[in-house]
Specification:
single chain; alpha/beta; Rossmann fold; 5-stranded mixed beta sheet; elongated
């Protein structure tokens, strides 16, 4: 005896519910060559079968003694919404059809007497719809699983950053103070360069740990902004003063141009300075000696803009869209990061731009990146202008 294919039965089994045996036999004959068909004579039998068997499509007569086809389909719609439902009826009254569509969510209806070719066509299309819906659910499940895995991975990274920063922060702090104490003591001249190198390394390590802690806090929503109407000229002048000696040491030209009558931005001065400083720091580190870094401002539609442009090595287009992600490949090979902070090609932990974007997002602003390898990069920050924000919102 031929054993039916289980997968075929799951995807294509048709259930016929009709109190007239002749009608059940007619449907069987019409579909026998294409699909497995199960026939029952009562709605209760059909519901019981649906509860224990994988049925893809149900064909039911409208007029049955136990319950109408519409009532049966309403029960099926509640308990087995994925099953495709086809109604057979000898009546074409509009009320019956509307009720079948609204209550039973009927996929299609055929009036008696129906043509076998028409029934086969409707069933085939109904099963195609069932298969498509099953595939949609499968893909949706895969996407949901992938999202959950990504969320877990992000949470694990965040926990790792937090734990590492906290666990290493104290010994690094102690080490830095111990080195400072040693540097002030009487030590041989030959040893002093090693102590100074150790001091610089401790400072660099402390800076990296601070970045890790900041990134973890931003991801977890622990850091809160205190925005206010902030004039940008003093902030940018402060950034310029910080980087002028660094750029001079590297032979870089640093130019800061503030638009006349520039409106105040709505920003937290501490964190906005951190964001702009991160962009200038990146520009300095990825621009060869003798190049240029330019900071400009602009006025948009209800926004105040800050742009940081460099003539550096640029970012490959293939990774530019992930430049704001933590540890992004756009930041270069992390295995090549250097302990120097501002030398050409020095790479940090790959967190600076991620922190910068989190800061700007927290301000309700945007940040965009443009880059071309061998030409340079430009990062543009857009912040709400204070004139476009009410005093109540600022408070």
């Amino acid at each position: 005896m031929h054993k039916p294919n289980v997968e075929c039965m799951t995807l294509h089994t048709v259930l016929v519910v009709d109190d007239e045996p002749a009608s059940v036999r007619a449907v069987r004959r019409a579909l026998a060559d294409a699909y497995p068909v199960i026939g029952v004579s009562a709605a209760s039998e059909g519901l019981a079968l649906l509860a224990r068997e994988p049925i893809a499509l149900v064909i039911a007569d409208q007029r049955m003694p136990e319950m109408t086809g519409t009532e049966l389909f309403a029960r099926i719609a509640d308990n087995h919404p994925d099953v495709v439902r086809i109604l057979l009826t000898g009546y074409t009254g509009i009320e019956t059809l509307v009720d079948a569509i609204n209550a039973g969510h009927v996929y299609y209806y055929l009036t008696k007497p129906w043509e076998p070719s028409e029934l086969r066509l409707v069933v085939r299309r109904g099963l195609e719809r069932h298969a498509a819906e099953a595939e949609r659910r499968r893909l949706l499940h895969e996407v949901e699983q992938a999202c959950r895995r990504a969320e877990r991975s992000a949470e694990q990274k965040s926990r790792l950053l937090t734990v590492a920063a906290h666990e290493l922060g104290t010994p690094v702090h102690v080490l830095a103070h111990a080195l400072a104490f040693v540097a002030e003591a009487e030590i041989p001249a030959a040893v002093r360069p090693w102590v100074e190198t150790a001091e610089r390394s401790a400072v660099w390590l402390g800076h990296g740990l601070q970045q890790m802690l900041s990134a973890a806090r931003w991801r977890n929503g622990f850091l809160k902004l205190q925005p206010r109407a902030l004039p940008l000229a003093p902030l940018l002048d402060d950034v310029r003063a910080t980087y002028v000696p660094i750029c001079a040491h590297r032979g870089l030209r640093l130019h800061v141009a503030v638009t006349p009558a520039l409106p105040a931005a709505v920003a937290d001065p501490l964190w906005l300075r951190r964001a702009v400083s991160n962009l200038v720091s990146n520009a300095v580190r990825f621009t060869p000696d003798g190049g240029a870094v330019t900071v400009t401002t602009g006025i948009g539609a209800g926004t105040v803009d800050i742009g940081v442009t460099d003539t550096g090595i640029g970012i490959d287009a293939a990774v530019l869209d992930e430049v704001f992600e933590p540890f992004s490949a756009a930041c270069g090979d992390l295995s090549l990061h250097a302990s120097g902070r501002f030398e050409f090609g020095a790479r940090g932990l790959g967190l600076g731009l991620a922190i910068t974007k989190a800061i700007i997002d927290g301000h309700g602003g945007t940040i965009q990146a443009w880059s071309q390898p061998g030409v340079g990069s430009r990062f543009t920050i857009r912040l709400p202008a204070a004139a476009a924000v009410s005093e109540r919102e600022l408070g």
